[in-house]
């Protein structure tokens, strides 16, 4: 049974949530984070950024790759009340226990930086056989407005209708990257959740996604990966 903090559950506004795709299952929450929460995450991460890594499909070991050029920081679990509040909100929105979540990772993309098409679910035996199981969901939070570029793209998505509230035909694509499928424009405070695992436990190949390169400005985002089973005693 999942027991959530009613204080945070009560501030989740369903009217701000929109379905943006059924294949993969993806939803957007407009204004999920406050300006204070966004700036707080940036302030914590800014002096501690290191080059982002990827996992080797064969061994599960992390290594640097030209496919991922951002810099980031995992925010350690501590007694920070703002970070704790964000963790509670994520759990209340997704109906997934916070104990199943990895530490929040804050990411910074500068001009020309992005992350080529990839899956968030694990494909190596090392991670899949871990006690916490595979990643089932991703919550991606946008911490600032990006002048141009930086969209989150789902190139294989089907049955999608909305692009930040606009129809497919009226959406104003700012980059060639964003024209290749379902694209979500980064707006400060907005968040999306998408599922890489079907309800029957099989992986969803349509959850393939990428971070389009930033054309102008900076992009700050925060990501929360959620596993099948608890990974931390919180």
Structure description:
The protein has 4 helices and 18 strands. It is α+β, with helices and mostly antiparallel strands and 234 residues long. The radius of gyration is 17 Å and the shape is globular. It has helices at residues 6-9, 35-45, 81-94, 125-128; strands spanning 17-22, 25-29, 50-51, 54-55, 62-63, 71-74, 105-109, 115-118, 135-142, 148-149, 152-154, 162-163, 166-167, 182-184, 191-195, 209-211, 214-216, 219-227. Helices cover 14% and strands 30% of the residues. The strands form 5 sheets. An 8-stranded antiparallel β-sheet has the order 1-2-15-9-18-7-6-3, covered by helices on one side.
Write the layout of secondary structure elements.
Layout: H1 6-9, E1 17-22, E2 25-29, H2 35-45, E3 50-51, E4 54-55, E5 62-63, E6 71-74, H3 81-94, E7 105-109, E8 115-118, H4 125-128, E9 135-142, E10 148-149, E11 152-154, E12 162-163, E13 166-167, E14 182-184, E15 191-195, E16 209-211, E17 214-216, E18 219-227
Antiparallel strand pairs: 1-2, 2-15, 3-6, 4-5, 6-7, 7-18, 8-16, 9-15, 9-18, 10-17, 11-14, 11-16, 12-13
């Amino acid at each position: 049974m999942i027991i959530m903090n009613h204080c945070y559950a009560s501030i989740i506004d369903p009217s701000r949530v929109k379905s943006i795709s059924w294949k993969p299952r993806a939803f957007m929450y407009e204004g999920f984070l406050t300006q204070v929460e966004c700036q707080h995450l940036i302030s914590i991460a800014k002096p501690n950024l290191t080059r982002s890594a990827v996992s080797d499909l064969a061994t599960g070991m992390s290594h640097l790759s030209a496919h991922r050029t951002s810099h980031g920081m995992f925010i350690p679990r501590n007694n920070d009340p703002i970070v704790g509040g964000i963790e509670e909100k994520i759990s209340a929105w997704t109906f997934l226990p916070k104990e199943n979540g990895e530490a929040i990772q804050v990411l910074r993309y500068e001009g020309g930086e992005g992350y080529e098409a990839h899956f968030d679910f694990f494909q190596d035996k090392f991670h899949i056989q871990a006690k916490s199981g595979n990643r089932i969901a991703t919550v991606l939070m946008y911490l600032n407005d990006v002048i141009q570029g930086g969209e989150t793209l789902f190139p294989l998505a089907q049955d999608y209708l909305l692009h930040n509230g606009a129809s497919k035909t009226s959406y104003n694509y700012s980059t060639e990257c964003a024209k290749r499928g379902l694209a979500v424009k980064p707006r400060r405070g907005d968040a999306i959740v998408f599922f890489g695992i079907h309800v029957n436990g099989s992986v969803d190949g349509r959850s393939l996604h990428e971070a389009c390169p930033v054309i102008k400005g900076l992009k700050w985002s925060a990501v929360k990966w959620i596993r099948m089973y608890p990974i931390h005693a919180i």
